[in-house]
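re: that complex we talked abt at group meeting.

here r the seqs, copy pasted straight from the sheet so there may be weird spacing, ignore it
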Amino acid sequence: MAVPKRKISKSRKGMRRSHLALKETQLVECLKCKSPVLPHAICSVCGHYRGKPVITVEDF
Ligand SMILES: [Zn+2]
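got the structure back, here u go
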């Protein structure tokens, strides 16, 4: 429901926005090389996903 902006107190606005903060990025440990990896993503260090090789990572 639309409410005029001046009717919303700073307190109420803050209470509503208390749920809007971004969460800290969650990292899981790669089963192969134990490096931190984003969940549901291939490890960029060793190219494994859930302990299985998926892609080959080139060495530099
Ligand atoms: Zn890895």
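couple things i noticed - Helices lie at 10-17. The beta strands are 28-29, 36-37, 48-49, 52-53.
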